[in-house]
């Protein structure tokens, strides 16, 4: 989706317990008619492992005849990971891919040296209105891969491992490996992404499964070592900590994200991520000029212009 580098999450506070380094509250943005809470990047925390962007999309209800409409736009140097809790998005890209993602499935688009794509509500879902709820993530590609060939992979919901952990906890491995189960999603940079549903009062020790980790509260409220955290918060965990996570006051949904530290800093501008700012300048020029590096997206007649700022 279209983004600007300076739209970084706006509120953060020190952690209230030793296990939490920082708590970030997302800033609301409108993207193609969809409200998102932007949790990463944040000025004081640009990445957690390979995760350089995290948007909590919705939940939003679209009126009959309307829907999500994000025209073709370009990416370099990253992989987009889309994961829905409700609704559907039709993905089209310059590789010729047309794929509809629904709850529990994963779309992983690898940009490499350049790809363009659009995201829209399906025509069949527009007449009666629809609801959309999910997350969209950007993962920085390692330096040896950021100028490689683009690609796309769709993974059906039933292909992701789902486990029962203790009492009242369901865990899905979206990317990476945990509790002996591995996701088929080949996310870059050693990304770890878990989707946890906890019944009221259910608790577990957060595994020290990656050098850098964060807990995103999607729905409900939780206690992290007894400190309250509500929906829309990202708790950045200290390295090596194993805090106790507990649902508080009802069903809670939390995503654990993380991985090894990036292999160097990244520059971000609009939809571009790169280890070398010169690569972003090249991409800006090529998108603005219509260079074949970013081929047209089939069945699309418009495209987002390069921002002027």
Automatic annotation (TrEMBL):
Q: Where is the signal peptide?
A: none
Source organism: Tistrella mobilis (strain KA081020-065)
Q: Which UniProt keywords apply?
A: Iron, Metal-binding, Plasmid
| Residue numbers spanned by region Disordered | 288-309
Pfam families per the UniProt record, alphabetical: Pirin (PF02678), Pirin_C (PF05726)
How the cofactor binds, per note? Binds 1 Fe cation per subunit.
Q: Which family does it belong to?
A: Belongs to the pirin family.
Protein name as catalogued: Pirin domain protein
Q: Which residues bind Fe cation?
A: 73, 75, 117, 119
